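Entry under discussion copied across for reference:
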Amino acid sequence: MEMSNASSGSMKEDILRDMGTRGLGIKARGISKGIGRGKILISREPLSFLGGVDAKTGIVLEKGHPLEGKCVKGSVLVFPRGKGSTVGSYVMLGLKQNGVAPSAIINLEAETIIAVGAIISEIPMVDKPEEDVFSILEEGMEAEVDGEKGEIILL
């Protein structure tokens, strides 16, 4: 069993890019500048911030969502894309103002709501990762996102 975990780990390492002294990572497209680091909080389902995330607590409220009941505070939040109302951008700003925002966001495809929310809230964000983040990243892993360079670094 340990052998299978070890080979799985090395397989992941084989597809990660060498980011020099910063370690192994994944190249992506930068959306919102800045550097954020934290534990990965990951969902394969799109997320709506309006009605889906409490701006005062950072807890995901959306019924039936894989992240329901979890707090986004300080996390590297990974999800395919946003959904819902454009007011979701202001919910993201509220999260930041209340000190419960994610430290960074990784999307497969940024759409306007999440991109604008990340930019006005100064939350580092990337999208279009060159590798399948859902097969590489796991909940609880430590990562750093550089929104200007478009890099996801595994710590």
